[in-house]
Amino acid sequence: MSTSTRLVVYVSLVASAAIAVAKFLAYLATGNASMLSQTYYSLSDVGNQLLLLVGFRLSEAGPSRRYPFGRGKEQYVFAFVVTVLLFGVAGYASVREGYAALGTPFRAVDVRINYVVLGVALVFELYAFYKSYQAVQEEADEEGFEDLYGTFRRTKDGPLITAATENLVAIVGVVAAILGVFLTDVTGNTVYDAAASAVIGLLLMGFALALAWENRGLMVGEGVTRTERQALLEAIGDVAGVERVLDLRTMHLGPDSVLVASEIAFDPGLDTAGVEDAIDAVESAVRETVSEADRIYVEAESERVEREYPFGDDGGTVADEFDRGDHGR
């Protein structure tokens, strides 16, 4: 877990906890449905950050007999639970409140407290988004992602992208709530307030579905990116004594932990000591190429063995992929 990811989560937690109470008090004072939806959102955000921190804590436990590869995937599990449970439930509750508010009579109240609370919330959310944007940009620079969308699609740091996307959705939600309160107060028509509540709920539900889909792949056992895979094949191929990569499989055990397993055909002329030296060189090349690789397994074949390993881009084998120099998946 990176320090920047932990900082983003803590900033979001403090901001959400501080404004959740203020939003609920504003709802009690004015009765605006959009303020209640905002309260649901902030409460779900508090639960979000707490569960992510629990995931961080559990994932830091090292390997054990029960968990021989450690518990790095705890972060993915808790990020998935957050998106499905908290944001899905909070989104549904917001849509329900918006629907229930349709057709309710307008009640003339002083809504200035709503503007104050939402204005403060917007400042907090903008700051939280700024910190998360910095962390995401740092992740993009480190991994070589082209843009923010590419980072969202390809990053293996589920908690970071969860917190960053949540902060962006929070800003949109606050703006929607401000518009709903303002239009209802000016026109005397509560449909605007109800619509703002529904929009906030739909944003939460859409956010939950998108992030649940992204975390699903990491939980199942997603490998390294195409760029990293290409770099691994090239680095292994450059090791003296390596004839052919017969199989290469990778899997993220956590944002900062990668398993790399390979089967390699070495030069038949190498003796036992030579093969051992070549294996050590392959392991070093893997670590230099993918710094997160902390579980590296190399199976040596002293002769060219023709086997079928269907993991090429076009349905071919890894060996075919390696031979033609097309190392990207």
UniProtKB/TrEMBL annotation:
SUPFAM superfamilies: Cation efflux protein cytoplasmic domain-like (SSF160240), Cation efflux protein transmembrane domain-like (SSF161111)
An example molecular function term from Gene Ontology annotations: monoatomic cation transmembrane transporter activity
InterPro entries: Cation_efflux (IPR002524), Cation_efflux_CTD (IPR027470), Cation_efflux_CTD_sf (IPR036837), Cation_efflux_TM (IPR058533), Cation_efflux_TMD_sf (IPR027469), SLC30A9 (IPR040177)
Domain named Cation efflux protein cytoplasmic: residues: 228-301
Single Gene Ontology BP annotation: zinc ion transport
Domain Cation efflux protein transmembrane residue range list: 9-216
Compartmental location: Membrane
Gene Ontology CC: membrane
Keyword list, A-Z: Membrane, Transmembrane, Transmembrane helix, Transport
Transmembrane segments: 7-28, 76-93, 113-130, 160-182, 194-213
Annotated membrane topology: Multi-pass membrane protein
Keyword Transport: yes
Protein origin, superkingdom: Archaea
Gene3D superfamilies the UniProt entry points to: Cation efflux protein transmembrane domain (1.20.1510.10), Cation efflux protein, cytoplasmic domain (3.30.70.1350)
Region of interest called Disordered, as start-end residue ranges on this chain: 308-329
Cross-referenced PANTHER family: HUEL-CATION TRANSPORTER, PROTON-COUPLED ZINC ANTIPORTER SLC30A9, MITOCHONDRIAL
Protein name: Cation diffusion facilitator family transporter
Organism: Halorubrum alkaliphilum
